[in-house]
Amino acid sequence: MKWLLTFFGGAVIGALTLFLFLRQVGHESAPPPVVVAVPAASTSVAVAPAAGPPPVVVTTDLSEADLPLRPVQPLTPPLPDMAAPALKLLVPVDGVKAAQLTDSFDQPRGKERHHEALDIMAPTGTRVVAVADGKVVKLFNSKPGGLTVYQFDASDKYAYYYAHLDRYAEGLKEGAMLKRGELLGYVGATGNANPAAPHLHFAVIELTPEKQWWKGSPLNPYPLLGD
């Protein structure tokens, strides 16, 4: 009986030893646990707007109509052979520097038109002068443009358009020859201009072979004007 107990006791101890050995080997060979980092939920923070009055937007024209205008077209970079002419024009409003101008040439006017001119802001009565030598070909009072002047350059290749004038210079008439910097009128808000935003509407037109003051291809005056 004693030998039987010894036999079973040894078997139990051997089985327990084997179990512990296999368990230890399993722990050593098992891959390390994978730890997945879970980001914390994002938090939106509302930032209060800076204190101060809202920006003031000045409307220069009270209707979509203005002269000259063209249908809206996709804006694409000019091709080399379509580069702007090498004109050097005087800023037509006394006291305004070229650096103060804003390029409004491609601003939309309604859904079907572009501005195709520059609006040069200045107080009513500010002197408006000729941007270059040339002849006055038309003095015109239109509903959109108010008191206007069309001037051809010395080569009759380009027309310069001055609009919304308060009044003409004394003695100005069609056929008069103007010199660069010579007075032709005064800033105003005639036509469809906003009375609260007097300005000169200035445009440059490349004339057709027929040399008609009301027809031609508009050019952006912004890069052509200098002090």
CATH class of the domain at 87-226: Mainly Beta
Low confidence ranges: 25-31, 33-49, 64-84
* Helix count from the secondary structure assignment: 1
And the CATH topology of the domain at 87-226?
Glucose Permease (Domain IIA)
Annotated CATH homologous superfamily of the domain at 87-226: Glucose Permease (Domain IIA)
Find the count of extended strands (DSSP E, 2+ residues). Answer: 11
- Distance between the first and last residues' Cα: 125 Å
Silhouette: globular
Quickly give the CATH architecture of the domain at 87-226.
Distorted Sandwich
Helix and strand string, N-terminal first? HEEEEEEEEEEE
Describe the 3D structure.
It contains 1 helix and 11 strands, in the order H-E-E-E-E-E-E-E-E-E-E-E. The chain is α+β, with helices and mostly antiparallel strands and 227 residues long. The protein has a domain at 87-226: Distorted Sandwich (Glucose Permease (Domain IIA)). The strands form 2 sheets. Strands 2, 3, 4, 5, 6, 7, 8, 9 and 10 form a 9-stranded antiparallel sheet that branches. It has a two-stranded parallel sheet with strand order 1-11. Strand 4 and strand 5 form a beta hairpin. The longest helix has 28 residues, at 2-29. It is globular and about 40 Å long. The termini are far apart. 26% of the residues are buried.
SSE layout:
Elements: H1 2-29, E1 89-90, E2 118-121, E3 127-129, E4 134-142, E5 146-153, E6 158-168, E7 177-178, E8 183-187, E9 199-206, E10 217-219, E11 225-226
